[in-house]
Specification:
By secondary structure, the chain is α/β, with parallel strands linked by helices. It folds into two domains: about 140 residues, NAD(P)-binding Rossmann-like Domain (Rossmann fold, 3-Layer(aba) Sandwich); about 300 residues, 2-Layer Sandwich (Dihydrodipicolinate Reductase, domain 2), CATH 3.30.360. Helices cover about 35% and strands about 20% of the residues. The protein is built from 16 helices and 17 strands. The strands form three sheets. A nine-stranded mixed beta sheet has the order 16-15-14-13-7-12-11-8-17, sandwiched between helices. Helix 6 links the parallel strand 5 and strand 6. Helix 9 crosses helix 15. The longest helix is centred in the C-terminal third of the chain and has 21 residues. The structure holds 6-O-phosphono-beta-D-glucopyranose (BG6). 6-O-phosphono-beta-D-glucopyranose binds next to loops.
Length: about 500
């Protein structure tokens, strides 16, 4: 396992401390990092909420959440006692800045330590909270602010939030989270590409035929439906997670791992994305919405039923064909798809190489198939290289695709840390490499805004798909038109 370096004493203040993200992700992540010995001295976790809660009542909520969200044998009653001593609860309303007395009191005298303010709230509160911190003089030289997604719903609203927060914090104090960048396998993409010389000469037009990126979920929108209905899959998943995967797959080698070196290369990819406008949306995009079906034998309701019978054209599935206008990727399409209530939870990047220029093998059952490199992000993280091999036997010369298949979990034999564990430690250490710079967010929104306005102008309809399938038929047609198919090819 990689070395676990302790971090200096800190105060981590979580606005939205009673919310779903804090309970499901942040506190379990902090629990693990503390248990592995990375927290020092009297570092504190200060949860901020609107309600008046006693410390005892808050701790009871946290304990229940940890018992529910940690893996079976990870909750340790003895360790909980010392972890819970770090936790405080403070009442403060994001909008009433003159009532932040208890927060001020809790932080008084601790100005020297690292202060991280995590905004796990609705984005409409990011500006007001930043302002409240400034008016109450709670922003120290050692302060950093973490912004959860979604950062706005278009370029205009994202700019407004960034401006408001930017009035109180310098850009190098702002950490915009995309939790995909904290996933081990996403970081492994950097290792795969830049710690091995094997792939680089092949990683381009001329050898790569196309790239597929799939982020498929079995879950529906569940309890978040009201929020989700205003957002949809393009804004919820593509604007951030999928575009980040495109950037890491397509970018040039940065000169170092320095945060700006990596982010400078990513932004060049975003700026090279060919706009998809009203004329192009029909041939380059598919929108889908799940209807009732079944997943792994269990019936699943349709999106509209979950909405309570209301009408909605919000997409729960998107497929895109995108082009990157630069020398490396000219004429190499990247196909992206993401959706809810699909056949399985399955996220991967497939790089398909070109066919052999001429086959010397006789016609047979299996044609010579192109090589492909599959980077599995989840589940069963790993890398698979598919090659053609001769089937053993004395007669004939039959070929078959076979795989060199590497499972990271089997190879390294450790629990894969949740992405929030990594990201929280990076903020505490003051390393913004895995966070999005403002210009990246702006460039991603600008490109996404083009698709949204294209959809509006062309009135592109939302295709229905059965829950438990791989999405609408139009998604297969998108590749079929180019004589290609999704892996798995349904
Ligand atoms: C979130 C989206 O950012 O990512 C959710 O808002 C989605 O809708 C989730 O379910 C997927 O994350 P993961 O880590 O489970 O792939």
């Amino acid at each position: 396992m990689a070395k676990l370096l302790p971090v200096d004493v800190f105060d981590l203040i979580i606005f939205g401390g009673t919310g779903d993200l804090a309970m499901r992700k942040l506190l379990p992540a902090l629990y693990h990092r503390d248990r592995d010995g990375q927290f020092t001295g009297d570092s504190r976790i200060i949860a901020v909420g609107r309600g008046a809660l006693s410390k005892k009542a808050y701790l009871a909520e946290v304990k229940e959440a940890l018992q529910k969200n940690l893996a079976d044998d990870d909750f340790d009653a003895e360790f909980w006692r010392s972890f819970s001593e770090r936790i405080k609860y403070v009442k403060a309303d994001a909008m009433s800045h003159n009532e932040w007395g208890s927060l001020k009191k809790t932080l008084a005298g601790k100005e020297e330590r690292i202060r991280v303010i995590y905004l796990a709230t609705a984005p409409s509160l990011f500006g007001p909270i930043a302002k409240g911190l400034a008016t109450n003089r709670l922003i120290t030289a050692n302060s950093r602010i973490v912004l959860e997604k979604p950062l706005g719903r278009d370029l205009e609203s994202a700019s407004e939030i960034n401006n408001q927060v930017g009035e109180c914090f310098a850009e190098n104090q702002i950490y915009r989270i995309d939790h995909y960048l904290g996933k081990e396998t996403v970081q492994n993409l950097l290792a795969l590409r830049f710690a091995n010389s094997l792939f680089e000469p092949l990683w381009r037009r001329g050898t790569v035929d196309h790239v597929q990126i799939t982020v498929a979920e079995e879950l529906g929108v569940g309890g978040r439906i009201e929020f989700y209905d205003r957002v949809g899959a393009l804004r919820d998943m593509v604007q951030n997670h999928l575009l980040q995967l495109v950037c890491l797959t397509a970018m040039e080698a940065p000169s170092s791992l320095h945060h700006d070196a990596v982010r400078d290369e990513k932004i060049k990819v975003l700026r090279a994305l060919r706009p998809i406008d009203a004329d192009a949306v029909r041939d380059h995009t598919v929108r889908g919405q799940y209807a009732a079906g079944a997943i792994k034998g269990e019936t699943a309701a349709g999106y509209l039923e979950e909405l309570g019978g209301a009408d909605s054209s919000t997409e729960t599935f998107v497929a895109l064909k995108i082009e990157i206008d630069n020398w490396r990727w000219s004429n190499v399409p990247f196909y992206l798809r993401t959706g809810k209530r699909l056949k399985g939870k399955h996220s991967e990047i497939v790089v398909e190489f070109q066919d052999v220029p001429h086959s010397i093998f006789p016609q047979q059952d299996f044609a010579v198939m192109p090589n492909r490199l599959t980077i599995r992000l989840q589940p069963d993280e790993g890398v698979k290289l598919t090659l053609m091999a001769k089937e053993p036997g004395p007669g004939g010369f039959d070929l078959r695709p076979v795989s060199l298949d590497l499972s990271f979990e089997e190879t390294f034999g450790i629990r894969y840390p949740d992405s929030y564990e990594r990201l929280l430690m990076e903020v505490l250490r003051g390393n913004p490499a895995l966070f999005m710079r403002r210009d990246e967010v702006d460039a991603a929104w600008q490109w996404i805004d083009g698709i949204i306005s294209g959809w509006e102008h062309s009135r592109q309809k939302v295709e229905s798909y059965v829950a438990g399938s791989w999405g609408p038929t139009a998604s297969s047609v998108l590749l079929d038109r180019d004589n290609r198919a999704w892996y798995p090819d349904t």
